[in-house]
Amino acid sequence: MQDNLTIDRIYKAHPKIKEELLSLYLQCNNMLPKNVRLRFAYVFRSPEEQHALFLKRPKVTNADSWQSIHNYGLAFDIVILYDKDGNGTFETASWDNNEHWKMVVSFFKSKGYEWGGDWKKFKDAPHFQKDFGFDWKTLKQRVDREITLIDNGITYPKI
What's the CATH fold of domain 4-154? Predict the structure, then answer.
């Protein structure tokens, strides 16, 4: 069973990964047990949303506006939802490193996505990205220099 909120969020991903990400999400989600659902908590994040997260305490990110791969539609954060009562409402969210979490991590890593849980300085276990070898500074330069694509009213760097 798919999560429509996640589908809506995937449609804001960079055009270079949007269709792939949708397909991979559906595949991965269908591998989970019936009472478990994968949700993407974030995909594209505006610079304003990123700045608000940067200011949040306790600290949840080192990245300010334009310093996150989310700002370019090339990243997503996950959460696992559970239907504890068996009534079809997936109301229990979990970020626990359990068997379902590990399965999702393994799946997306096997498809070429970098996992924030592997980072040395600031581990970010819900985070995945496909940056095509570009760091945030290069992606920002591409946006600033009009090497862009516009889709869904969002400006993305051309990859």
Answer: Muramoyl-pentapeptide Carboxypeptidase; domain 2 (3.30.1380)
Q: List the chain domain ranges.
A: 4-154
Which residues are bridge partners to 156 per DSSP?
149
Q: What is the pLDDT along the chain (159 residues), one digit of tens a residue?
A: 789 999 999 999 999 999 999 999 999 999 999 999 999 999 999 999 999 999 999 988 999 999 999 999 999 999 999 999 888 899 999 999 999 999 999 999 999 999 999 999 989 999 999 999 999 999 999 988 877 777 788 889 989
pTM equals: 0.94
Distance CA 141, CA 38 (A): 33
